[in-house]
Design a protein that fits this description.
Order of helices and strands: HEEEHHHH
Distance between the termini: 31 Å
Number of strands: 3
Strand order of the largest sheet: 1-2-3
Number of domains: 1
Strand content: 5-15%
């Protein structure tokens, strides 16, 4: 069941760049057959990525705001080349090509 929920989430998740991390509909996705929306801040809290005190801290808000401003300039091929052995080719990139961050 867990695998199916993860696949459903990943297949339907969309991120809408809004002003900041608090709008209630930054992230939309389906889970268990139901459409859901969350703010980016709520998502990071529910996933256990950040504590509430961290999400609401001024440095974190500034970091996220800067990230959201730069997301449109994100270059997939440059990022891919930094984490794998090989060259990014749209349509053929695979998770198995990603280097282990530990080894």
């Amino acid at each position: 069941m867990y695998k199916e929920l993860v696949i459903e989430f990943l297949a339907t998740m969309t991120f809408s760049r809004k002003d900041g991390i608090y709008p209630n509909n930054n992230l939309t996705f389906c889970l268990g057959g139901e459409r859901r929306t969350l703010s980016l801040a709520d998502f990071t809290l529910r996933m256990g990525i950040y504590l509430s005190s961290e999400v609401h801290s001024k440095p974190n808000q500034q970091y996220i705001a800067g990230f959201l401003r730069n997301i449109e300039g994100f270059k997939v091929d440059l990022h891919w080349n930094a984490i794998v052995n090989g060259v990014y080719e749209k349509g053929t990139a695979q998770e198995s090509n990603i280097r282990s961050p530990i080894h």
